[in-house]
Each structure stands twice: as C-alpha cells, then as structure tokens.
Amino acid sequence: MAILGEMIIGAHSVRGAGTEVFGFNPATREDLQPGFGQATGDDVERACALASEAFDPYRALPLEGRAAFLEMVAEEILAIGPELIERAQLETGLPQARLEGERMRTVTQLRLFAKVVRDGYFMDATIDSALPERAPPRPDLRLRKIGLGPVVVFGASNFPLAFSVAGGDTASALAAGCPVVVKAHSAHPGTSELVGRAVQRAVKACGLPEGVFSMLFGDGRTVGQQLVSHPAIKAVGFTGSRQGGLALLRTAAARPEPIPVYAEMSSVNPVFLLPAAVQAGGATLAQGFVDSLTLGVGQFCTNPGLVFALAGAELDAFVAASAQALGAKGAGTMLTAGIHDAYTKGVTAFNTVDGLQLVAQGTTEGNGCAAQAALYVCDAATYMGNPALEDEVFGPCAVLVRFTDAAQMLQAAEHLHGQLTVTVHAREGDLDLAAKLLPIVERKAGRVLFNGFPTGVEVAHAMVHGGPFPATSDSRTTSVGASAIDRFLRPVCYQNVPGSLLPEALRDDNPLGLSRLQDGTLQVGGGK
Amino acid sequence: MAILGEMIIGAHSVRGAGTEVFGFNPATREDLQPGFGQATGDDVERACALASEAFDPYRALPLEGRAAFLEMVAEEILAIGPELIERAQLETGLPQARLEGERMRTVTQLRLFAKVVRDGYFMDATIDSALPERAPPRPDLRLRKIGLGPVVVFGASNFPLAFSVAGGDTASALAAGCPVVVKAHSAHPGTSELVGRAVQRAVKACGLPEGVFSMLFGDGRTVGQQLVSHPAIKAVGFTGSRQGGLALLRTAAARPEPIPVYAEMSSVNPVFLLPAAVQAGGATLAQGFVDSLTLGVGQFCTNPGLVFALAGAELDAFVAASAQALGAKGAGTMLTAGIHDAYTKGVTAFNTVDGLQLVAQGTTEGNGCAAQAALYVCDAATYMGNPALEDEVFGPCAVLVRFTDAAQMLQAAEHLHGQLTVTVHAREGDLDLAAKLLPIVERKAGRVLFNGFPTGVEVAHAMVHGGPFPATSDSRTTSVGASAIDRFLRPVCYQNVPGSLLPEALRDDNPLGLSRLQDGTLQVGGGK
C-alpha cells in the first residue's frame, strides 16, 4: 500500500493544505518521502463535525457490532503486512522484533476491548426496582454508562503502534462508543497513515458512519489546540511530555465547556532495593536493572530512572555490577532528533549537580541520534536538596540514592511526586520494611510491583498505567488495560422510562445477559 | 446541646479568630445568636495537616470499622433530637416536616454508604493470575481502588442537612476512606455546629484518628480558597452557584498538583410535554407541575424551570390550569436574603424580555424574604434568541416554550446545555417522538425521567445526580446515590506483591467475601 502523505477525514483521504512535513530517519538523520500536508482549520472543523454526527448512530450500534468493528481494525492492521514494520523502523529507529511485538500488543489490545464491550461490565448496569407501596413511593431507577462524545487522541512518539493511531486511547474510546479524531504524531507520519487507512477500511467494512474515525497531521500547538478547543470534542487522550500535556489541560479547562484531558506525562518510576534483596540479588539483580533501564533506549514511560537503597558493602557491589553491565550496553538510536537533544541536555545538567557522581556509562559508538546510557549515584542530602533529580530525563539514565537508614528512605518515599510505578525489591528479611513502605508508595503510584522491573506493561483487566500528578493529569484512571474504557464514559439514570424505550442493557428480560446490580445485589448474567 | 459558635478541628472545638458571623432568620430578617468566629489561615493549616495524618490509618481500618463509623454518625445526628430541627428552621425558613424528612434522608444516606462499604463493590477488586508458562510470562496483577486523600466539602445552603456537613459529599468521601474537612455554609452555622459535633463524637466513639473530620467557618473566597489550595487536599465536593463552582475549579486547576472538583452548579431541568400526554394529563398534569415548581420555594437543584411543549388548544388548557394552580400558591420564605435578592433580580430581568409573557403568579403575602412564584410563556424564536432563558433563576419560576412542531422541539432539545435532569411526559401516542428525543436528552442530562417531575432525588444505587456542564463540573460522576463514592477513589495495581503484604480485598482466600473480576470473569462473593 502506497504512503501518499494524506490524512483521513471520515471516508475521504485528504491532502492537508498546511505546511508540508516529512518523516525523519533518526539513524541516518535524513528526511523520508513523501511529504505530509498538515491540516487547516477547515480540516479540523470537518473531522469534528463528522465525529459529532457519527456519535449517536455509532453508540446506538448493538454491542456485538461495536466489538466486531474493533476486531476488524485489528485484522486490517495485520493485513498491512511487513510494510508497516518497515516504515515504522525507518521512522523510529526501533528494531524489527520490538515493532512486531508492539503490533501484536496493539492487536491484542483491540481484541481485549472487543471482549470488554461484549462482557458489558463497563456499563455498570444497575437497577433499583420501583417500590410503589413505600411512602413516598420509590420510582423505577436504572443506570447505565454511555460514551462522553467525540474524543481527540494524540499519538505518542515512543510507541508508534500501541500508543498511537489505533493504540490504547483510540481502542478504549471506540469501545466506549465514542468517535475518535487522531492527531497523528509528526515523528511517524507514514506509519500513522498506514494504520489510519486500516481503521478507515474497518469503518467502511462494518458499515459505520464515516465520522467514527478521522486522523489529521499537524503541530500540537496549532492543530492540536484547535482540536482540543472544538465544541464537538468531549475528552482528550494524550501521552507525551509534561509541557505538552499541561498545555492541553489549560486549553481544555479554559473552554466554555471544560472537558477531561487524560494526559500521561512523566514518571521516574522509583525502585526501592531493600537490604536483603540487594544481598541476595547480587549481579543478577544488577543485570535486571540495567536491562530494564536500557530497554528501548530507555524510551519507556515506565523506565526506572530513580533507585533508592541503603548504603553498605552489598549496595557497593550492586553498583559495581550495574556499572559493569551498563558498560557493555551499546548506544541505541533514539526516536527523534528532539528526544536525543533533550536527553543530551538532561545528562549534561546532571553532570553539573554537586554531589551527583557519574558511576557508569554505556558505550558511545552509534549514529547521530544514539544515546549513551548513564548511571549516577548520590547521597540522601544531595537528592533531597535537588528537586530536579526527580524530573524525568527521557532515556537510559538513572540516579541511585544511597540512604543511611530505613527511616531516611521512608522519608524520601513520602517526598516523592506521583509516579506511574513504584518497584520494591524485597526478600524475607525485608518484609517489615516493605510493609511500612507499601501504604506510602500506593499513595504515590498507579502500580506497585515487587521483585521485578517496571518496563513491560501488561494489557490486562487489573493493569493500571496511571498515577497521581505529574505522572498523569488524572489519577482516577488508567491508559492501559480494560479499565481505560472508564475514562470515556458517564452514567445516565433512567427513571420510570417505558420498557419499550429502555436501552437493551436495562430491560427487564436482560437480552444482553449482562451482570447487573439489582436492588443492591450483584447478579451475574449468563452472557448473550 | 448548646451552640457555642465553635469550629471542629479534629478532637478540638475551636473559636475562630476571624471576623464573627451570625446565623440569619430569613422569616424575620434578624441575626441569630451566638456569633461564629471564622477560621484563620492557621486553622486551615491545622485541619488539613490533621486530615493528612489521618488518611493512612483511617483507610487502613477494616471495612467493617469504616461502615460502623458511618452508622455511628447517623446515630449521633439522630441523638441531637428536636434541637437540630428547631435551629435549622430558624436558620433556613424551611418547615419542620421538610427538615425532619431531610434528616431522615441524611441518616439513610449514611447507612446506604455503610452498606456500600461492606459490599465492597466500590473497590472494583480485579485479579489477573500469573501465567508463568506464557512467553513472555504474565505477572500476577491485582487491582483495587483506594481513597484519593483528604477531601474538602462545601456545605450547600439549600439542604442544610442532606447536602451539608454530614451530607452526601461527606458520607461518600468518608466511605471511600478519605478524611473530610467541611467548609460550613454561613447560612446555617448553628445547624452546622450541631452536626459537626455529632460527627466529632462518632470519630471519638469509634476510636478513629481525630483528623478524619474537621469543620471550619469562613467565607468561600478566603477560607474556601485556602482549603482548595492546600497541598494536603486531593479532591473537592461542592453544591452551589455556577460562579462559586467555577472559582473553585480555577483554583484547583492552577495548583502545582491539580485536583478534581465535583461542583454541582446550575440546571433548569427541562420538562418535555408531548402532545398525547398534555391531552390526557389535563389539570392533574398542571397541578403536578406547579407542585414541583413551588416545592421548597423552588429551591431545589432539580426544580423544573423550563417546559417545552407543542402549541395548540390542549397546551392552552394546560397553561390555564397551571396559572390557576399557581395563583393558589402562597409566597414562601427563601433560605437567605441573598437568594431572595437574586430571585427578585432574575424575575425582574425576565419581565424585560421581548416576547416573554408572564402568564401566572403566586400570591404575594409573606415576609421580607418570601418569593412570589411566576410562570412565563414564549415562542420558539424568543427562546432560541435569548440564551439567558436557559440560565437558572433559583426559585419558583419557570419558562414554558411553545413550539409549532416536533422538529422545532427536537432542535431546541439539541440546543440545550448540560442538565441534571430532563423530564419527558409521554403517552402511547407520543412514543415515536419520545424515541427520537431520548438519544438527544441522554446526551444532555444525568437523569432522564418519564411521566413525573424531577424534584425528589432518590438515594439509591441507580441514581445519577449529575450531568454535563454546566449542571456539574464533571459529567462522569454523581453526587447522590451509591456511585457518589467513585468520585473519591483511584485504582492501584499490585504486581507480584507477596501474599502477606496484599490488601485483604485482593488476597487469594478472599477473606472479605468480595465479588471480584477473576481473569476477566465476574465471580460473586458470598460476603463476609
């Protein structure tokens, strides 16, 4: 399938009349063909108007139709074949195996949301029967959740498939019954066009209203802001920088009708190494840490950028082993020149912090966008005195803080900002300290994990990829896993609505076989 | 129990050093004794610090302890006895029977949340078992929801018990495991002190950390803003004016760490009278409408302030019957001098709108804060040309819009802002039109009700007292009913956490007997 440099506006492929932009090969630092025309205000208007028109018919579709559509999107993405992986490789510098894995993750995610739709738990169907004899009589009350309305999704640079055009935000919004307008990320426009066309084909094959999906190219500060400001848009999904997320939050809050922005922004994903775990883990623990730190050139939201441990001979051995493991890590190509520049700037700033010691680096070979991994060590006073050490440096760089005792470590835990993850390495002898740590870190993070590393975010029902500010803009939600659908829903109560007008989910005969809360008691449905 | 003019800061009763304010009797327009000292910045600091300290131990309490505490609050409120009703009557002008009903509603609400806590559905307990054989292996993932942290609740003027110190916001936040700091409404300080002391006694009787509950007096613009700005505070519940709600939203969004504000603000609660219903309903329908319009002197969030109907002889008869019913309604005392002034101003503004015709009024006898009910009629062009006609005039005043045909009525429905409720009166012959109306109005309102009136909000599992902006600041939520607890929760995922450290809700042996989503399938627990 040829890449034409076109946007998707409903059923149409449209070349944007705005400034032309190009994909960029970070390995060669060369532009890629073709050019992509960016959206004008008219394109934004048209995509949003189509999305608005599509909302009622799309959400009225039977659940089975919505689920089949999500599965069709997955099929159409697979049907693109090797061209998708090849183009994504060129645009991102990510290796083939990683991109193939990411494609499978994207497809699995769409299929999970098809199941979520069919199961129908997301609607929180609830019925309180009428009590006509009570004084005063209680009316018949039935609750279900419906979609918020059209959603704008911003593609992320670091997962060109799984957090982009048909990634988790799009899949969960479509599952909720919300049309989606994607603002494609300029770092992988060709990959975006291929996936955008796949979604467009699925819309057509399923006979859905065309406005269910559109995809525009453009700058976040212009097209992105126009989309978030548009009155038809009712929610925003974003994964990216704190600066970018906060700009969208401000715009959304300043609208005549404010709307929710789900921005996943920045996290240093602290790792607590408790004493017995350091002693028992030895070089294996160090290797696991370094592998996680350098995975995907450190370009994961859940990259472990901060390590807390107690000073001592065992920790010195861990640092030495980590230094050795890191020294063997080659410099990997980063996603974009901008990300590479920011990483270089971040590491340079660390080098000027008094008391922060560079203890290990990766190798330096590689092309112009290759990043050299780095590990720093400091004491508690240096850490507590330098709030910037808790700011994310996006890439394979970490700070290890040596504490003199557990109380000092707990105090630093209390001092943490919101995080996507907190990791605890603990063995038998650490459990008392771990029990003290747990209530603190569960206040700080969306996911608390033991004896592993935070990279690798399972697409599952129990996953939380979220967390308190500034990890995200809304700690009440997750952007990965089945619960991601909750972000795009709102409850509606139907009071004494005649049976013939009730939504299927709430009818007495329960034609969808849903599990429902009936008069305060959960009743499991048999499914359809 | 004497009313001393004191605030509650944890276990202490404190007289605020700020400007003294007095309760006000709207029937006599006289100040009530004693004076109440308003909070200083130090009081705010102390209450918030105590709430922060109390959060971990309070949320660690077994569910049964949290439920018993909510029931104890209910008991302590009942134990105040007639003094509470007498004081509330003096401060609000509301009749005894209404206040006794409201007290029962408050108590019922606390008991409902005790049940919600015991049932444990609110935690959304979810388990995805480890799949060690899979490549890559899936870790053990477990999700539960925990409280957001300390919550500030603003007492509302119009429900001095059910939406005030121990009302729905406080009950649902406490149920979620969040300490509460109440900013008492200055319109009923004595009532607030009595209820605040009741909660304080319950905290003590249950042996809870004192910071679980505090209550301050003060102005919204000073003490209210200080509370919402305080870093210990993680969410805000508010019921009141749009202006007040928006001010809190702005402050919360501008914090270094933005926090959610659940502001229930303004709604005109449109009532659609479909043709067959108007014909069949006759004078009974008119009486029902007028009763709802004037209930509680129109001082309900769900007061029906806007009526849409098709022009014709049947509608003329309905208007005539409404005019007659309204003419028999006495002028009731409004809650405060400020509310009365605003109502007078709103009605005066209506009298100057070209094309808006005053067709009926209530009687004028009554004291200085008594409000004369009013009904206006206009055509579609007048309505569509005057956006102010959709702004809430808080009190017993409504606008009826006559449409020439159903298409025009549907267009006006599409034009509505967000609302707490939309009501549809429909008989057999109206069902086709109702079916067209339903998808529109469910996008506009939190509750859609048929063949009744919107006043009267049942405290139940399926209730939604919420809706799109500007009815509330967050359409994803409700402030009445069991789901109100969801506002104060966030999910946490526990990955490979050792069994001995897992929260009870997520242990393999399910000691709480919770219903849980196990590997994607809902499993109903037997309860404890």
TrEMBL record, chains A, B:
<feature type="domain" description="Aldehyde dehydrogenase">
    <location>
        <begin position="24"/>
        <end position="466"/>
    </location>
</feature>
<comment type="similarity">
    <text>Belongs to the aldehyde dehydrogenase family.</text>
</comment>
<dbReference type="GO" id="GO:0047533">
    <property type="term" value="F:2,5-dioxovalerate dehydrogenase (NADP+) activity"/>
</dbReference>
<keyword id="KW-0560">Oxidoreductase</keyword>
<dbReference type="InterPro" id="IPR015590">
    <property type="entry name" value="Aldehyde_DH_dom"/>
</dbReference>
<dbReference type="InterPro" id="IPR016163">
    <property type="entry name" value="Ald_DH_C"/>
</dbReference>
<dbReference type="Pfam" id="PF00171">
    <property type="entry name" value="Aldedh"/>
</dbReference>
<dbReference type="InterPro" id="IPR044151">
    <property type="entry name" value="ALDH_KGSADH"/>
</dbReference>
<dbReference type="InterPro" id="IPR016162">
    <property type="entry name" value="Ald_DH_N"/>
</dbReference>
<protein>
    <recommendedName>
        <fullName>2,5-dioxovalerate dehydrogenase</fullName>
        <ecNumber>1.2.1.26</ecNumber>
    </recommendedName>
</protein>
<dbReference type="InterPro" id="IPR016161">
    <property type="entry name" value="Ald_DH/histidinol_DH"/>
</dbReference>
<dbReference type="InterPro" id="IPR050740">
    <property type="entry name" value="Aldehyde_DH_Superfamily"/>
</dbReference>
